[in-house]
Design brief:
Length: about 280
């Protein structure tokens, strides 16, 4: 049986490697906020980009409680949590990592066909594939597949085996381009949208890259109305490049990544892209 002491020792060991950690209750869930922080009454920080506890010293705000500070991990305020804990979790994004959580044999088989090999950790039902690099977390990006990185947590299950690879575009695309079930999917970009063909006047690195970079800057610079800005930017990009086959999945992934960095979810990105296609008749 796992003891509070062994869990704390594991957490302290991980912290020495710069891995932000926190205790988990049974069921792989974090501890709830204290009374002061209940329902984010303290101001919360639900949109935090970096790990660390709230101003209260308790184990609050789920993944945001993750820390590498041994004084916090050993504090009286955390002592009760370790006594009730069932496991140690960590914040992958805070350690510069991304975890692809493969929950069954079918998901593992697909990953072996589509993703580069990397550090692999066995789990009770599948495997964690761990890459060096960060991205927004996203659940259910494919059947049996979750991506855990920024603003997320993963259960610590050991060091695993294999050499860790850099986070590939295939994982970013995996999390960005799969639309929700029963919704219209964005049209594939491997062929010209709208059925047009011929030499494309946009197929120059300077023109196309400048356009995508400007779109990314417009999204990144949005101070308010982010939803509307993302939609209008997608609409502008598609109106210029959507009918001639310029755009590739890599370009779309860049736009989606910029939008998610501003707090948009994969679903919001997919909906905005689909709505822009519909508006333009693509």
């Amino acid at each position: 049986m796992t003891t509070a002491t062994s869990l704390l020792n594991t957490a302290l060991h991980l912290a020495t490697f710069g891995v932000p950690v926190l205790p988990l209750r049974a069921g792989k869930v974090p501890f709830g906020n204290c009374r002061t922080c209940a329902k984010n009454a303290c101001g919360g920080r639900p949109n935090m980009k970096t790990p660390g506890p709230c101003t209260c010293p308790g184990v609050c705000h789920a993944w945001a409680a993750a820390t590498t500070d041994p004084h916090v991990l050993n504090s009286p305020q955390w002592e009760a949590a370790w006594r009730q804990a069932a496991a140690v979790a960590y914040h992958p994004g805070g350690a510069g990592l991304t975890v692809v959580d493969l929950d069954n044999a079918a998901a593992i088989a697909r990953a072996r066909d589509t993703l580069p090999a990397t550090l692999t950790v066995p789990t009770p039902r599948g495997e964690h594939w761990i890459y060096q690099g960060v991205m927004p977390s996203a659940n259910a990006v494919r059947p049996g597949v979750d991506v855990k990185s920024l603003m997320g947590y993963a259960r610590w299950l050991g060091w695993g085996s294999g050499a860790m690879a850099a986070l590939p575009d295939a994982v970013r695309t995996l999390a960005l381009t799969d639309p929700p079930a029963a919704r219209r999917a964005p049209k594939p970009l491997s062929a010209p949208l709208g059925g047009q063909s011929g030499v494309c006047r946009h197929r120059t690195p300077v023109f196309l890259d400048r356009g995508i970079a400007m779109a990314e800057q417009r999204i990144t610079g949005a101070r308010e109305a982010v939803h509307a800005t993302v939609y209008r930017t997608f609409l502008a990009v598609l109106s210029t490049h959507g009918r001639c086959g310029c755009l590739t999945d890599t370009h779309v992934a860049r736009l989606f990544t910029a939008a998610q960095a501003k707090g948009e979810t994969p679903r919001h990105c997919t909906d905005a892209w689909t709505n822009a296609l519909t508006t333009l008749g693509l």
